[in-house]
Design goal:
Helices cover about 35% and strands about 15% of the residues. With about 240 residues, the chain is α+β, with helices and mostly antiparallel strands. It folds into two domains: about 80 residues, Homeodomain-like (Arc Repressor Mutant, subunit A); about 150 residues, Multidrug-efflux Transporter 1 Regulator Bmrr, Chain A. A five-stranded antiparallel beta sheet has the order 6-3-5-4-7, covered by helices on one side. A two-stranded antiparallel sheet has the order 1-2. The longest helix is centred in the N-terminal third of the chain and has 19 residues.
């Protein structure tokens, strides 16, 4: 990886730690154990040993020791309901005298939303009075997106989201990548909010771009596989 970035291994490690907030080794170990915890919880028909090996652990003993050090319980206890009591994020919110449910639903949301019926921006407070909201699941084609990644807390961070939105939109507009109508915005959560600490939580603010678009600076380019999510149209005529 250092060679691909044209850095020495030493300099690459320094840059990685400065950007991500943890060393490369600790980052890889954390991603492995968090991915395993997610699989243990939801892939209930898969043996825990198989999950450990799939996530890069050399054997079940190493996995068991690492899992218990990280989550203060065994993988079996986690699968049998222990995950319901584990959440460093909600523990922090509770210590700050915030109710996790209300904080997530109110202060964690943007003050504005796009009304799908007319594609216009409206204040979020009006949505609380709606009684006929319908959730629709759609299958979508593969989509190329440009994105800016945010690492850290996102609950109640409306100012940060507004800055990311403005930066990404200006970047796309300056390169004639915005299509109205046609451009869609996505928020892609890279971690599980009930597992990953807010300080290390990764999420990408993304917008659809033509295939072949090149990354530049803080803006990366990625591909969202088909059938994963429904876009929120945010670009108006």
């Amino acid at each position: 990886m250092a060679e691909l970035a044209y850095f020495s291994a030493y300099h690459f490690h320094r840059i990685f730690t400065a950007v991500v907030g943890e060393s490369l080794y600790k980052y890889i170990q954390r991603i492995r154990i968090e991915k395993a915890a997610h699989a243990v919880q939801f892939s209930t028909n898969k043996p825990i040993t198989n999950i450990a090996l799939d996530c890069g652990f050399s054997n079940s003993a190493v996995f068991a020791r690492t899992f218990k050090e990280y989550f203060s319980m065994t993988a079996t206890q986690w699968r049998n309901g222990g995950h319901e009591t584990f959440s460093k994020n909600w523990q922090v919110l509770s210590k700050n005298r915030k109710t996790p449910s209300s904080d997530w639903q109110v202060t964690g949301m943007s003050p504005l939303y796009i009304d799908g019926s007319d594609n216009n921006t409206k204040w979020d407070i009006y949505r609380m009075n709606l009684s006929n909201i319908q959730v629709e699941v759609k299958e979508l084609p593969q989509t190329t997106v440009a994105y800016i990644r945010h690492i850290g807390p996102f609950v109640g961070q409306q100012v940060i989201w507004a800055q990311l939105f403005q930066t990404l939109t200006q970047w796309a507009g300056a390169r004639n990548l915005l299509q109205c109508p046609g451009t869609h915005y996505y928020t892609v959560f890279r971690d599980d909010v009930n597992i990953t600490e807010f300080a290390k939580f990764k999420c990408d603010l993304s917008l659809s771009v033509p295939e072949g678009t090149k990354p530049e600076g803080e803006v990366g380019v990625n591909v969202i596989a088909g059938n994963e999510m429904d876009p929120s149209p945010m670009c108006q005529d």
